[in-house]
Specification:
The structure is a homodimer of 698-residue chains.
Chain A (H helix, E strand, L loop, with lengths): L14 H4 L16 H13 L8 E9 L3 H9 L16 E8 L2 E8 L6 E7 L10 H9 L5 H9 L7 E7 L15 E8 L16 E6 L4 E7 L15 H4 L12 E3 L6 E4 L2 E4 L2 E8 L3 E11 L5 E17 L11 E3 H4 L20 E8 L5 E13 L4 E7 L7 E6 L2 E10 L2 E10 L4 E9 L3 E3 L14 E5 L2 E4 L1 E11 L5 E13 L15 E9 L15 E11 L5 E9 L12 H5 L7 E5 L21 H5 L8 E13 L9 E12 L29
Antiparallel strand pairs in A: 1-2, 2-3, 3-4, 5-6, 6-7, 7-8, 10-11, 11-12, 12-13, 13-14, 14-15, 14-26, 16-17, 17-20, 18-19, 20-21, 21-22, 22-33, 23-25, 24-25, 26-32, 27-28, 27-29, 27-32, 29-30, 30-33, 31-32
């Protein structure tokens, strides 16, 4: 977030190389687009007479997945949907946003056959723009070098223009208070000193005070400001590359360790379908969302292996990152990383044995470059079984009544990981599947702070609000937030669900049994007040405001003893919500970050929390806007939106690279199974020294 | 919590066997009592003429650690304390609570020499009693079998008295609303069906409606009530022992996995001192607190390996578990597990390869039985390096400005684990040390619910508040809370610290730089308001009420650029606080559970949040009572008290054994180091397939 450079490895691949699909594997309707398909889509769009304008740049190319009932029917048979065959052929379509002639064009492309064709076309008339392309950013980055005012600014700072590099930053949206530039696709650019011999840490050396305004369609600098000169922080002590900091490697050292699986891996990947323990799910890739988990179902081993639905589709919908400095060069730092830059497009190649352990397997992704040609994102998803030393369940029975025994079941989980590097920040985004039936989504933040150059070298010199922490000489780590918003289309045991607030409320003991009390000295207790959310307004929750268990339940399915089957939310840290004023522009665009939880009825078009055109969006097409309709969410096909949020006050330890900090949400079966699904799981008797089921007495 | 049976393996050991100390290792002043020492303490107490009354029962025997300045001087040299020699000999003393003649006697025993001697004696005159002994519980459990009203109650339920077993439950304290019994040491007993052929799960089959009152000193039943008969739930489906549920083991199966460390373990245990990576600390054992971590210091590798203090002493001070059923048989279920039952005394033998992974090492503990003789608690602490697949820090630099490279440092942590089984519940209590300088305390709950028998077999029959969830036929899982309160005597870089609230507060943009604003379209932002807590009242925080970073800082130590060195608190889930009414008796005893954070000045006698005599305590000697003095906590030796809290609404998955659920607190260096301490840590180049530091461009 924050984005002085293009952060992705661009590897163009030929369609021939990219066709390496498993020969046994027939396409799943939710499979991400292949390189071949992307090539065909490009050809279809370029061949279409509907948009003759050139040049034409591809901003988004993704799967336009078949309608949900058809996918459900394909995956689970006809019981839950209109169609009738599990071997049915579903339409294979792509959704494309391309820019040409100063307009954003939307195409639906049929790619079922070998020769793709455009099915429909529309021009986007509303506010906002699609994601930046690589080409946008690379071309813009070349502009300053030949822009005389900038060359002069650099010279004025004692630098050579060859030493600096600039990056494209979205300018946010500030209504009439920002110049409109005739509705052009305008960004800002800021610059840093780039000298990899001195340091890899380009973000540590900002050329503060200079902001350019660039029209990306005209690809020209249309505004320029050099407000003030600040000291460029020194390179010394900022590098983090192993070959620059050592040898000797004097940092703390833990010994190497590798997980060995004597019986091999426990999961099977067939195309994009994954089977592991009691889980089945589909792993997709999208250039905007990154990893997409679909059709996750859990086998109920106590019910003869019945496959039970949990999650139709889950992905990161948006990452909103507002900075907290109102100054001229910083006020617009209000990034929507997914909608502006694209999480899949910025997925980093995972480093084997470091980003993922040695027992991981890897998946590639493909997306379209600005010319429409396929780009291979290599090793951007990994899957591994996690042996963290945790315990799934345990109990030791005491000797007191004659039976001493311990039963322990270690926990092993399956992690699906992607690392998205949005310029300076690195998000490790995990989907962790647990045999107990939980899915835990984990956001881990690392990478590099956005730094602001300042003339102070010591805290004692500071007499103003610097809007951040002095983290090293001449350097402020600017205050900011991270709001990672997930789209989680939970389908608990079927499509129609309700959202339940089991409010945990204090009670006085009335002393009277008819009113829940009892004639005892106890004066108070708490109980659970069951509340069904009827409409969207009731589906919005700030989880810090009052204690409650929040559940998705299937009101039509009950356990044998009559409890509604459900999954509940377990937030695990990182529950911050936005503190921006409701009337502030960035807040209007991302007003959904005022509450962690929103529930909406399923609508195939409502995928992106900040709207389809998030770049310079105005808030008229976002999660909060949709929810204003206050639709019914009771016993409907509903979607959970959950935001993992952090207020980030930087500390010196965050420099030059930040130690990882994490937040998570677990969705956990709650009256979904008849009992703990792991009771009949085998103890680890083959593990070294295991004695998990010991008997006898002392 | 909740405690129908004695839950500990009692293994009496001879002093000769127990003397297996490392020959090179000279006693550390914080080492827990050895078997030899416990034997000598017993002899000294029994030989003392100060308390001639017999029988005399030992309720607590623990180390009376030397005064803090002396320990600091021993450990770190004279700089921080009055004494002068790091090889100084410190007094070796024990603190003993014994019951004789109907009184609680306190002894201080000198055990420096071979023949121990009583140094001081006092009689406890206030309210409350010491922890139960094993003997208390075993003797009480024998009473009902020959108590005619109970035999009749059992017969009335169609059971044989030989099929039932009863356990001692603390009766809480309810002022004048509960019979005083002349101030006697009174408990309640409740019973379950015990038939290990039918099921191991004795808690699943309560003999509901029957409560006995027992005087433990007279060891007699002094009250009896059989209020109503309820169906005893069936045994079928309640067992969890591997040999009863399989084969076949039809539960979800993940493959076995073992961490292999090709270069061996990275930590060294010398007696009770542990060295690992950049950490050094001492692991103790106490029959009340369980694991005690002392003298934790981190080496600042960027400062030439300077040893810097972090934690003087940390342990679980109390676990308060109030149940939420006001009914006659349940209202008093308001357990203080540490103070009533003892966490160390109830530590379970860890199951190798299951409770702890194969690469773990184990430690024993010793405590005193009620006769004063040493009891060996075997393998109750394990230490292992955790390879969870996490990343300590990472960054991928984009290709845009000519430098594509990724640097990744995997995270390896060191875990110190104990499992405490308090009757039905199993607490896995971890201290996780991280190379980044963090200590993470993790509470993981598993075990068995406290269940209440009820005549309902289906939710549809229920028309009342059952104060819990119908989790199987005839069985309610009763609502309850868990409040695990830690005593964390942080000493950040020295003894005198301050508690800082960095309040994260929203601001309007004034448009004027002099007031922190700027003339830009941005209307709002947040900033940090620094607040030093002056006195204890300001040291109490409900962390859910408003966003803030909470820190312990050393106001006398600053980083080179002038930030106060500190550690901050990062709560990670489980932030519930008590919902009981302030005037309710259990709340008065544990009123400190209304806020997660309390800060007090260090006082050697303030160890136990519910008071030294927690059993039937009245709240006059607890954390909240001490804090009413509102002492200064600014630039003092201060202690953090942090409560990990959960409201537990049971679900069917919690039956018959609960899947683990966790909460945590991390204390993390924050302007403690000059920069990320892991920058100079070697990348894992020797790991298979590692390519953590890749260069080049595409």
């Amino acid at each position: 977030m924050g984005h002085p450079v293009v952060a992705v490895a661009i590897v163009f691949v030929s369609a021939a190389i990219a066709m390496a699909a498993s020969s046994q594997y027939s396409h799943h309707p939710l499979d991400p687009l292949t390189a071949t398909e992307i090539t065909a889509i490009r050809a279809a769009v370029l061949a279409s007479p509907l948009v003759p304008a050139r040049p034409l740049f591809f901003h988004y190319v993704g799967l336009d997945e078949p309608d949900k009932p058809d996918v459900l029917s394909y995956a689970y048979g006809a019981a839950d949907a209109a169609a009738t065959s599990s071997q049915m052929t579903l339409p294979r379509r792509a959704f494309v946003i391309a820019r040409a002639g100063g307009q954003s064009h939307e195409f639906t492309v049929d790619i079922a056959a070998d020769n793709a064709s455009v099915l429909s076309h529309a021009v986007h008339r509303g506010p906002g723009f699609p994601m930046f392309t690589d080409e946008d950013q690379i071309a813009a980055m070349a502009l300053p070098y030949t822009y005389p005012p900038f060359v002069e600014s650099v010279r004025r700072r004692g630098l050579d223009v060859g030493e600096v590099g600039c990056g494209v930053l979205s300018r946010g949206w500030f209504g009439a208070e920002q110049p409109a530039y005739g509705g052009a696709r305008v960004v800002k650019m800021k610059c840093v000193v780039v000298d990899y011999n001195a340091t890899a840490n380009i973000y540590a050396r900002p050329v503060e005070g200079v902001v350019m305004v660039v029209d990306l369609d005209r690809m020209a600098i249309i505004g320029y400001r050099d407000r003030a000169v600040f000291t460029v922080p020194k390179a010394e002590g900022t590098d983090y590359r192993a070959d620059k900091v050592g040898p000797p490697f004097t940092g703390p050292a833990a010994p190497p360790g590798v997980v060995v699986q004597p019986e091999g891996r426990g999961f099977h990947v067939h195309g994009h379908l994954v089977k592991w323990a009691n889980w089945e799910f589909h792993v997709g890739f999208d250039m905007r969302a990154g990893t997409v988990i679909s059709l996750a179902s859990v086998n109920d081993t106590d019910a003869g292996g019945l496959k039970r639905r949990v999650l139709y589709r889950g992905f990161v919908s948006e990452i909103f990152v507002p900075y907290m400095d109102p100054e001229e060069e910083w006020y617009f730092h209000t990034f929507t990383d997914a909608g502006e830059y694209g999480l899949g497009a910025l997925a980093s190649q995972l480093q084997r044995g470091a980003d993922c352990p040695a027992n991981a397997v890897y998946m590639d992704g493909y997306y379209a470059g600005s010319d429409g040609k396929p780009v291979k994102a290599e090793d951007v998803i990994c899957l591994f079984e996690r042996y963290a030393g945790d315990v799934a369940w345990r109990h030791t029975n005491g000797i007191g009544l004659g039976g001493l025994f311990s039963e322990v079941r270690p926990d092993v989980t399956l992690v699906v990981r992607m690392v998205v590097t949005v310029g300076n920040y690195d998000y490790t985004l995990d989907w962790e599947f647990k045999t107990v039936g939980s899915i835990k989504i984990v956001v881990s933040l690392s990478g590099i702070l956005e730094m602001k150059a300042i003339n102070y070298t010591h805290v004692d010199q500071i007499r103003e609000d610097t809007h951040g922490t002095l983290i090293t000489e001449n350097t402020i780590g600017v205050y900011h937030d991270h709001f990672v918003t997930y789209h989680l289309d939970l389908d608990i045991d079927g499509t129609r669900n309700s959202f339940i607030k089991n409010n945990i409320v204090p009670k006085r003991n009335t002393g009277v049994r008819a009113t829940g009390g009892a004639p005892t000295p106890r004066r108070s207790y708490w109980t659970v007040l069951y509340e069904v959310a009827e409409t969207e307004a009731e589906g919005q929750v700030n989880i810090n405001s009052a204690p409650a268990d929040l559940l998705f339940v299937n009101p039509s399915k009950k356990t044998k003893i009559g409890n509604e089957v459900g999954y509940r939310l377990i937030p695990t840290g990182a529950t911050a919500t936005s503190l921006l004023a409701d009337d502030d522009y960035p807040e209007r665009r991302a007003s959904y970050t005022k509450k962690q939880v929103w529930v909406t009825p399923y609508n195939k078009s409502e995928k992106w929390a900040s709207g389809l055109y998030a770049e310079q969006s105005t808030g008229d097409d976002n999660l909060a806007a949709w929810s204003k309709r206050n639709r019914s969410i009771k016993d409907e096909d509903i979607v959970l939106w959950y935001t993992v949020g952090l207020h980030h006050v930087p500390y010196q330890e965050d420099f030059p690279v930040m130690p990882t900090i994490s937040g998570a949400l677990e969705v956990r079966p709650s009256n979904f199974f008849e009992r703990n699904p792991l009771i009949r799981t085998k103890p680890p008797e083959n593990s070294p020294n295991c004695s998990c089921s010991i008997g006898g007495s002392a």
